[in-house]
Amino acid sequence: xxxxxxxxxxxxxxxxxxxxxxxVEVNEGEVVLDIIHRLQATEAPDLACRWNCKAGKCGSCSMxxxxxxxxxxxxxxxxxxxxxxxxxxxxxxxxxxxxxVTDVSFNYEKARETxxxxxxxDVAPGDYRMQQVDVERSQExxxxxxxxxxxxxxHVIRDHEENKPAFSGPRFFIRAAELDMHPLxxxxxxxxxxxxxxxxGYCNITKCCTEVCPEHIKITDxxxxxxxxxxxxxxxxxxxxxxxxxxxxxxxxxxxxxxARAAGPAxxxxxxxxxxxxxGSHDSRAEAQAQSGVNWxxxxxxxxxxxVDERGKxxxxxxxxxxxxxxxxxxxxxxxxxxxxHLNFAHPEQDKH
Amino acid sequence: MTSTATRPRGARARAAIAAKTLxxxxxxxxxxxxxxxxxxxxxYATVRVYLHNxxxxxxxxxxxxxxxxxxxxxxxxxxxxxxxxxxxxWIIPEAAFTLPFLLLFRLTCYYYRKxxxxxxxxxxxxxxxxxxxxxxxxxxxxxxxxxxxxxxxFYAAVxxxxxxxxxxxxxxxxxxxxxxxxxxxxLIGNVVMLWAYTISCHSCRHIIGGRLKHFSKHPxxxxxxxxxxxxxxxxMQLAWITLGTLALTDFYVMAVAADWIPDLRFIN
Lengths: 353, 268
Ligand code: SF4
Ligand code: SF4
Ligand code: FES
Ligand code: FES
Fold this sequence. Notes:
The complex is a heterodimer of chains A (about 350) and B (about 270).
Chain A (H helix, E strand, L loop, with lengths): L2 E11 L2 E11 L5 H10 L20 E4 L2 E4 L14 E4 L6 E3 L2 E2 L2 H9 L18 H11 L6 H5 L1 H4 L11 H11 L9 H7 L11 H5 L6 H17 L2 H10 L10 H5 L21 H8 L62
Parallel strand pairs in A: 1-5
Antiparallel strand pairs in A: 1-2, 3-4, 3-5, 6-7
Helix pairs in contact in A: 3-6, 6-9, 7-9
Chain B lengths: L28 H23 L4 E2 L4 E2 L35 H9 L2 H10 L30 H21 L2 E2 L2 E2 L1 E2 H18 L2 H9 L8 H14 L2 H23 L7 E3 L1
Antiparallel strand pairs in B: 1-2, 3-4, 5-6
The complex binds iron/sulfur cluster (2 copies) and FE2/S2 (inorganic) cluster (2 copies).
One FE2/S2 (inorganic) cluster (FES) binds next to loops of chain A.
Keywords (chain B): Membrane, Transmembrane, Transmembrane helix
InterPro entries (chain A): 2Fe-2S_ferredoxin-like_sf, 2Fe-2S_ferredoxin-type, 2Fe2S_fd_BS, 4Fe4S_Fe-S-bd, Beta-grasp_dom_sf, Helical_ferredxn, SDH/FRD_Iron-Sulfur, Succ_DH/fum_Rdtase_Fe-S
Pfam family, one (chain A): Fer4_8
């Protein structure tokens, strides 16, 4: 049977807010997110909260419950005493939008700065082969649901806002570790990158990220500490450095990521001269096939640049953008339907007519 | 259709939550017992090291790990397995070659770092409890950058563990020939635990196999890595257990050497 329980929920937005008291019915088997939903259905229809799956798999319902970063949908009401007041607040480390909803763009920016998987150039997608033992360590990190609880709890940025530009956070340290341990990744300087650009040295391995991870990823033991040790190999271990000099291992690699960013933040795409498939595959075979039907020599007007923000990047969310709906990667100056002369696809028979 | 609307302000504000932490559990308990435990141990060890006495049981050849290897002029004949190299100035501990390395090994240990950063330095005292400091640069600068030297202290600790093992073996050979008593059991137990702690080190885990990209090409190192990983999960427990066994071993040797208690002998 249901019982009445006390709740304190932070209500407000960036201009200020406060903890508000609520008395809500709680039934057996319910989780904190259920109670938030009941409040929305009854007393507080305008209570803002982000959620999706209610199964601990989408990472949307991150909040702080009695001061601890938790998933609302995975925190059972049975873990609290009947008489206990449950306090629910938004994530502290990120700017608040309203009530329990925060703007987590910080994490998407850091994700975009993290160098992507770099498979060997001569292996086509679909031909990747690897042994289970080799890829096992990376797989642990693939469990991440991007709830950003670890990012939120990490005192490096939680208590020191000024460290945000220099520090990528635990979620991206395990991303770096995942790729560095990946049997098919060819980048060799991920450790240097993690240290120089991601702020690995800021982490003092106090393990709060591991404590809050709802996927129980051993972030510190299996991700951060191995990355620190790998950085030591490269930077502080004279024996290993001597070894790599002698055996010519680990020479400054062609596909190095460190230098790319040292050139400064990416500037707005002034490279009007070429058409880039940003993020798309550049597999030569695939393109060769696609070319039957495409006449690459047609004079095609260059696409206009998409609307970017002051740092030259596509805005991450509609919230931080000045237009309704997501920005168009074709540029917002394009009218639809596209005029036929702006298409670079041409029917092979077309020119015959 | 270019829009001229103004963009939203760059930096939004965090939620204005007045309380520094809203945790309701006893989050202060773990840092508190860490401070109490580590302080008590360091106090005991310091006193013992500067007693310069009761470290060697002549009858059964027990040598406490705090005085091993004994290398000052003060060392009694039987205990000085490695010669008497240093003068007997009181400030020099008997084990002047090993103690500094053991100290640095534990000081740079990933577990102890977590423990003292949280408890002594309050950075942070507990998860989601604010850092006790205004600014923070982590381990990016001197002196904390030096934590990266941990693996060298690990190498030193392996050598020291070998010496401690040798001491434990020698203790079976007392002046009357082979002997076996409770002290031997304690010495052996201590050495086993020291090895477990040393091998479970994160640097060891890295060196033994963690640094490889393709485990499939190094099956033996993979097996070794799997074993070290199994121990590594227990690194915190081993860190505290070895503090306990070290103090216990030392205390037992002191008590027997000072004739407070007799050693319980099983053979000879
Ligand atoms: S272990 Fe490092 S990354 Fe994780 S919360 Fe602590 S300081 Fe942050
Ligand atoms: S590592 Fe864990 S805590 Fe961090 S974002 Fe992923 S699932 Fe969440
Ligand atoms: S709603 Fe998806 S993780 Fe909670
Ligand atoms: S001894 Fe603790 S990590 Fe090396």
